[in-house]
């Protein structure tokens, strides 16, 4: 009779809840810190954050980032520093979204969005250029490319916020904001981190 | 005059209108079968998805009901590959050997008509009376058995002509499986013939008109054997060793692509429908059932037939969702050592009862004597199987030992 028990098990499933999400029309909410495609940030005055130091390219384990820095034009500087990212390319056929470039960046210029659903029809499209990665100079929002399936809210929390409450891995920075403001967003609040920030403030 | 069919349509002079009605029946049966195959594939995918807690096809048409159509169109436009080492002629022929018998065997199934209250199951079309089945040959069910034997060739030749190892293995399995289960299938059918006294499908159905379904009068055992053997004959789970994905990729149709693959697929599901319809005809009284509203009396038999077939189709899907695949030796053991002896024994018992009734023997004597004889036979069979198993185990032990010595 135990042979027939299995039939009951399968029959009962008919009336149970489905676990499938009808994917392209309906998406599951993404985790807050999902590693998607990169975004190059700007300061609140519209200046680019990238200083062309190539640390991201150096740390990249997949060798997918190509950066060339150049001296800022004196009369019309692109970034507040001495140099700026003249060429900035990320090859998404190679990128493994490890986020090491985000951690390496000294100015918090490169961050990752939650956007990972894109498909290209040729290899050139897979290489995102500086213009494509940079946020919009007016609104500070990431630019959506034609082949990207981007839903509402997926471009939020793309900037310094990603670097968590403890930048540089130093626990004494926990709960302290140690990043610069972003165009369109200003200085973002720190996320309530590993320990309760309120008690931290009381101690100080 | 030689009787070629018991259909009253053909008993009178065959004129233009009779030919037209026959053609109409053929076209309707063909269209009905094609559309129902389309819907059955969708039905199976939907139900299996339900049993897996999935959604199933949902994008093509409402509830994904046009999914099969979309798949069919897609397959039409795919490249038609011919393997280099394939036997070209046979490779092209095989799908049709599979498909044509699948179509033809549905022709003998009565899908409607009122057989109750002395009715002969005929309906009136354009002033002619005819059965609601394409053909009603006196050989009836034997035609079905013959055609399903031909369908084995389709599967076997497809695998053989592909010139590839997986299809070959699949087709070897298929031919062994289908031939061995056909014996049990035929023997369980034979029990039905003892009661109906005819092979004609309309005759079998009219014999069950008064709720005396063969399911009960043959004592359930032949029905159970028929369903198991039928599932094996269809190569459906849990007997789908022919196309066991994990072992044989796709089995006999691994090398097939495009529309030729679609033909195999079509034949497979058509066989599933036909097997359900035959089971309904043989054991569940075909289209017989209560006629509830007299004004649309002709609808009810068709409706009952449809519901009964649906119950079978659901069972086939349910089996697929529930049971894991049998191992090949288990499959052969079940077929040869259980189903064939059981169906043969039951057949003999029923035959003895029938003869006893004719001769006026006491039923109280026949049943115990029959059971004693059958259990003796079962004991002998068991002993033989056990002896064979022991000696083969012994031989295996010996060969293992000798291998050990070699090493």
Concise account of the structure shown:
The complex is a heterodimer of chains A (204) and B (407). Chain A is of the alpha+beta class and 204 residues long.
What's the CATH topology label of the domain at 33-135 in chain A?
A: Alpha-Beta Plaits
Greatest chain-chain contact: A-B, 13 and 12 residues
Q: Sketch the topology of chain A as an H/E string, one letter per element.
A: HEHEEHEHEHH
CA-based gyration radius of chain A = 22 Å
Order of helices and strands of chain B: HHHEEHHHHHHHHHH
How many E-type strands of chain B? 2
How many H/I helical runs of chain B? Answer: 13
Structural classification of chain A: alpha+beta
CATH architecture label name of the domain at 33-135 in chain A: 2-Layer Sandwich
Strand content of chain A: 5-15%
- Rounded to the nearest angstrom, the distance between the terminal CA atoms of chain A is 70 Å
The overall average pLDDT of chain A, rounded, is 80
